[in-house]
Write a structure and sequence with these properties.
globular; Nuclear Transport Factor 2, Chain: A; 4-stranded antiparallel beta sheet; single chain; alpha+beta
């Protein structure tokens, strides 16, 4: 695993680099299917990234990175 990247620095990277880090360094946590979409959660360093897939087109259609809530 490479040097840990802080959340803010991750969000500044281009999408292609963010996806590469998630898929190469991230730890898969879970997936959930809702309608025609699948949402997969990955833990990357000290934060999480959710990837949204469209089932019919078999493509990634969204991504959100977030830090764990303390509440």
């Amino acid at each position: 695993m490479q040097k840990k990247l802080p959340f803010y620095e991750f969000t500044l990277l281009p999408d292609s680099e963010q996806f590469a880090l998630v898929f190469l360094e991230g730890e898969f946590k879970s997936c959930k299917e809702l309608g025609s979409r699948i949402y997969c959660l990955y833990k990357l360093y000290s934060f999480f990234v959710e990837i949204e897939y469209d089932i019919s087109s078999n493509k990634i259609v969204g991504k959100i990175a977030f830090q764990k809530s303390n509440s």
